[in-house]
Amino acid sequence: MSQQKEQFLKDSERIAFDEKHRNTINFNISRYDKAVATGKKQYMDLDLAKDRAARIKRNVVNGMESYLKEFEFNFQKNGGKLVWAIDDREAIDAVLEIVKKHDVKKLVKSKSMVTEEIELNKHLEAFGVESLETDLGEYIVQLAGERPYHIVTPAMHKSKEDVAELYHEKFNTPVDFTPEELTHYTRVKIREKFTTAQMGITGGNFLIADKGAIALTENEGNGVLSMAMPNIHIAIVGIEKIIPSIKDLDLFWSLLSTHGTGQKITVYNSIITGPKKPNETDGPEHMYLILLDNGRTNLLNQEHQKLALSCIRCGACLNVCPVYKSIGGHAYETTYSGPIGSVITPHMKGLDAYNHLSFASTLCGRCTEECPVNIPLHDLLLYNRRDAVKAGHTEKSFSIVMKAYKTAMKKRWIIETFSPTMKNIGVGLTFKKSWGPRRELPKFKESFTQRWKKERNF
After folding, report:
1. What is the model's pTM?
2. Domain of 402?
3. Which of 94, 211, 290, 377 could form an SS bridge with 236, CB 3.0 to 4.6 Å?
4. Helix H or strand E encompassing 84
């Protein structure tokens, strides 16, 4: 058993029985469910929109190299500087080199899961740079010294009372501050940071190939401020975020906002084409884009699982997943949690260490049903399980049991030979540990053949 799996099992059991955590998550996700149900009403034919988006993203996945080359040409033509990073180390080194070149001491960041993926804040702080998260949810988890809990809502695991208590501890604000008062206090505190920051770092929701531009969508305006106010802008984006044309944005922006927050469209939507031009007064003088691989091409080489690169990071699959709602985001010990994280993480960080995530699923199919780009997530989890078994990353006892099960299922006489008592003893010895200490194994009373004959009076 890998160290990661052992920790996952311990954390999952602890969190699943935390009643306060469960109540907080159920409340927050129930609000999401209502908002998304309302947001979907804007579509006359949601299935058609999802089919169109899925087709576009699958074409991109199958032709990613050519789309990335087109994007690179157009982005550099716009005046941007592009860096290809094969892994997290190369991405971090590139950022630190730019920081050193421009003598940056203070920077602001907008919400970006890819910067969480490479643990950028930790490296910046070790380099002596103040890196401040400006998204409200990210700011809260940064204050708490935690990782984001959710792809879209980083502080989903915290109630308003938790946040008020955190602010009271950090800033001595009243412990009964309302959410509105907490938000206003944060806004005032962070706004002054934008005016003194030398650099802004953002992610990117989409890379537009035919324009060489980055599409950024958000609700607080901190992304625009992080990009436009400092003199230097760095965007760090995964290579899978590419889309062919600016004409595709109307489809993807609305699907992302509807499935992410239930909105028809998010509040701030920006298309960034590079640094400011000589005749422009606003925007950064220098713009760098770091395109990150970090295991994505390994995923691209998988015959079936490569479809997960179609993901637009809306977080919808997390919100409908019964496992995620039970154990939460932190138990996964990965940047990308829930069903999508369970599919992609084993290929990005190692199948030997993280294959257990693909087994932590009920395979109910809700994630697939909800996905706005029709990724067959529960099928991909099964392919991950297959690959883990073939590679020998599962316990030997698992393979032995499954071979015995297969043999028995293919030969009816084996099933009929043993009495219900013998079957109950055998199943108890084989599955009791994996079934868990809090559930009783089902009892065999009669075989299918016996029941069939009895009900039909044979």
Report:
1. 0.91
2. 396-455
3. 290
4. strand 81-85
